C-alpha cells in the first residue's frame, strides 16, 4: 500500500465539504498527484479489515489495556442514486422501520484510555439474488448473517491478541450463539441489551424445568438480579436501567452481563461506552465523506469505505492531540476555507 497516498486521500476526505473525486484530489494538489494515480489507488488492491488492522495496530498497542472494551454495531449509509450491486443494495434500517438503498457496514471499535479506534469491519454483501414468492420481485440476500460476521470479527481480534475484558452490543447482536461464543470460546465477558420479550428463568430450578418468563414481566429493584437466559448454560446478571429521553419521555433498557461481580452502577457505566460506536458512525458520515464518493464498481466502492474508516481513525487521533471535538475541528477547517476564498475573491476584484 502507498502510505503517502493513503494519508493524502484520507486527509482529502476530512477536508472536503462536497463530492470527493480523483480529479478533485489531483486539482487540490495542483497536479502533483494525477487523477490516474488516485484512480489506480482506489481500483487496485482490495483493502479490507486486515489492511485496517495493519494501519491502526501501532496506535492500538499504545493504548490497549486489559479492561478495554470491544463495541459492535452496524450502520447504513444511504446511496439512493447509485446503481445497485451486491454492496449497494436494499437493507432494512430499524431506525426508520423500512428498507433503504445503500451500504451496510458492521464495525468493531476498541475503546480504552479515552480513545475509540476501529479495529475491524465487515461490509454486508448480498450476492444471492432470488424472486420473492409473495411479491414476485427480485431481491438479494447475504450468504452469511451479521451474527456470523460478528463472531468472525471476534475471532480475528483474538488472533490479533487484542487486550479487552468486555464485548458491548445492542439487542440486535445479543443472540445466544454470540453470547455463548464470547463466554465459552473466548473466555471474555459480554454486556448487551436485551429485547423486552426475551425469556429468562429466575432460578436454576426454573431453568431445569423449562419455566421461562419474559424479562419485562419481572419485578425489579435497584440491584441487579441473577438469572438464566433461555438457551444459555450459564447465569448472567440482569439489570433494568430507566432513563429520560430528549422529549422527556421515559425509556427502559434491559441489560445482561456475564460478569457476576458488577454492581448496577458499574453495569450502566460500562454499557454507556457503547455510545462510542455511535459517535464513530457519526464521524464516518458527517466528517469522513463516507457517502460522497461517486465510485461505480464494487472494488472502488469498498476501497472508499476503507479510506473513510481510516480517515475517521485519523480524526480520532487528531481529536486527542488537538483536544478539540470533531465538529469544532471541521468548523475550523470550513471557516479557514471560506476565509481563504473570500480573500482570494477580494484580491481578484482589486486587480
Summarize the structure in words.
The chain is an alpha+beta fold. β5 (128-131) and β6 (138-141) form a beta hairpin. The chain has two domains: 46-170 and 274-351, no CATH class; 187-272, no CATH class. The chain has helices at residues 3-15, 22-28, 35-43, 49-63, 146-159, 176-185, 204-208, 264-272, 275-286, 298-322, 326-350, and strands at 69-78, 89-93, 98-112, 115-123, 128-131, 138-141, 166-169, 189-194, 199-201, 213-214, 225-229, 236-244, 250-257. The longest helix has 25 residues, at 298-322. The strands form two sheets. Strands 1, 2, 3, 4, 7, 8, 9, 10, 11, 12 and 13 form an eleven-stranded mixed β-sheet that branches. A two-stranded antiparallel ribbon has the order 5-6. The chain is globular.
Largest sheet features? 11 strands, mixed
Total beta strand runs? 13
- Report the radius of gyration as a whole number of Å: 23 Å
* Shape assignment: globular
* Series of H and E elements: HHHHEEEEEEHEHEEHEEEEHHHH
Structural class: alpha+beta
The mean pLDDT is 94
Helix content: 40-55%
Q: What is the number of domains?
A: 2
Number of contiguous helices: 11
First CA to last CA: what distance? 45 Å
Strand proportion? 15-25%
Q: Which ranges are low-confidence, i.e. pLDDT below 50, for 5 or more consecutive residues? A: none
Summarize the structure.
The chain is of the alpha+beta class. Helices cover 41% and strands 24% of the residues. The chain has helices at residues 3-15, 22-28, 35-43, 49-63, 146-159, 176-185, 204-208, 264-272, 275-286, 298-322, 326-350, and strands at residues 69-78, 89-93, 98-112, 115-123, 128-131, 138-141, 166-169, 189-194, 199-201, 213-214, 225-229, 236-244, 250-257.
Amino acid at each position: 500500500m502507498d502510505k503517502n497516498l493513503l494519508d493524502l486521500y484520507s486527509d482529502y476526505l476530512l477536508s472536503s465539504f462536497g463530492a470527493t473525486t480523483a480529479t478533485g484530489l489531483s486539482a487540490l494538489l495542483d497536479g502533483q498527484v494525477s487523477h490516474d494515480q488516485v484512480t489506480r489507488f482506489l481500483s487496485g488492491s482490495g483493502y479490507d479489515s486486515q489492511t485496517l488492522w495493519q494501519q491502526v495496530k501501532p496506535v492500538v498497542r499504545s493504548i490497549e489495556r486489559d479492561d478495554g472494551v470491544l463495541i459492535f454495531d452496524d450502520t447504513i449509509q444511504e446511496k439512493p442514486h447509485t446503481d445497485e450491486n451486491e454492496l449497494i443494495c436494499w437493507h432494512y434500517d430499524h431506525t426508520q422501520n423500512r428498507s433503504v438503498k445503500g451500504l451496510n457496514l458492521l464495525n468493531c471499535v476498541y475503546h480504552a484510555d479515552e480513545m475509540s479506534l476501529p479495529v475491524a469491519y465487515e461490509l454486508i454483501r448480498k450476492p444471492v439474488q432470488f424472486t420473492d414468492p409473495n411479491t414476485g420481485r427480485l431481491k438479494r440476500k447475504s450468504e452469511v448473517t451479521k451474527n456470523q460476521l460478528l463472531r468472525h470479527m471476534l475471532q480475528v481480534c483474538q488472533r490479533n491478541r487484542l487486550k479487552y475484558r468486555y464485548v458491548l452490543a445492542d439487542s440486535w447482536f445479543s443472540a445466544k450463539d454470540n453470547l455463548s461464543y464470547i463466554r465459552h470460546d473466548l473466555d471474555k465477558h459480554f454486556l448487551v441489551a436485551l429485547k423486552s420479550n426475551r425469556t429468562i428463568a429466575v432460578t436454576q430450578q426454573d431453568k431445569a424445568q423449562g419455566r421461562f418468563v419474559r424479562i419485562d414481566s419481572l419485578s425489579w429493584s435497584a440491584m441487579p438480579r441473577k438469572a438464566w437466559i433461555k438457551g444459555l448454560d450459564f447465569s448472567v446478571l440482569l439489570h433494568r436501567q430507566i432513563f429520560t429521553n430528549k422529549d422527556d419521555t421515559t425509556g427502559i433498557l434491559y441489560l445482561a452481563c456475564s460478569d457476576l461481580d458488577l454492581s448496577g452502577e458499574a453495569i450502566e457505566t460500562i454499557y454507556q461506552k457503547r455510545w462510542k460506536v455511535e459517535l464513530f458512525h457519526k464521524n464516518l458520515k458527517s466528517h469522513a465523506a463516507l457517502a460522497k464518493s461517486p465510485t461505480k464498481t464494487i472494488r472502488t466502492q469498498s476501497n472508499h469505505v476503507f479510506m473513510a474508516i481510516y480517515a475517521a481513525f485519523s480524526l480520532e487521533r487528531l481529536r486527542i492531540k488537538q483536544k478539540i471535538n470533531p465538529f469544532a475541528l471541521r468548523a475550523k477547517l470550513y471557516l479557514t476555507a471560506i476565509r481563504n476564498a473570500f480573500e482570494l475573491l477580494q484580491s481578484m476584484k482589486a486587480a
